[in-house]
Design goal:
There is one protein chain. This protein has 125 residues and is of the alpha+beta class. Helix content is 40%, strand content 23%. 30% of the residues are buried.
């Protein structure tokens, strides 16, 4: 995808390749519905989300969308579930090919854990 500086998430998605847009819209919907008071913006020229701390973001590539949760490592149980379903999972990134469905259940689980951790960190300050 072109790395022009998008002004907001709508701009980013509208300028993404047409095959990427449904995945990006779904990732956005999951982020907003899982953590209702999440703040949406652009960081590093991609959609990025915060809530009591950093949560994560997503990006579009030629053959896949990428979801990057802001965590040290994706939970091994979630990683295994995703890999069994054919997703490529790196240390902190899930690649979702355009011929695959967005793994909403697993992403929601990751987001809830990040939000919980952010709350604990905030309370400890």
């Amino acid at each position: 995808m072109s790395k022009l500086k998008p002004k907001d998430v709508d701009d980013y998605i509208s300028n993404a390749p047409s095959e990427a847009r449904p995945h990006l819209e779904e990732l956005r919907k999951i982020m907003k519905s899982t953590i209702p008071d999440i703040q949406e913006g652009i960081r590093w020229n991609v959609p990025f989300y915060r809530n009591e701390g950093q949560v994560g973001g997503f990006d579009a590539f030629k053959n896949h969308a990428s979801f990057g949760p802001w965590c040290d490592e994706i939970d091994p149980e979630v990683r295994n579930a995703l890999e069994e379903k054919g997703y490529t999972v790196l240390k902190r990134t899930i690649q979702i090919r355009y011929d695959q469905k967005v793994p909403a259940t697993e992403i929601k689980k990751i987001l809830k854990e990040i939000a919980k951790n952010n709350e604990v960190k905030k309370a400890a300050k």
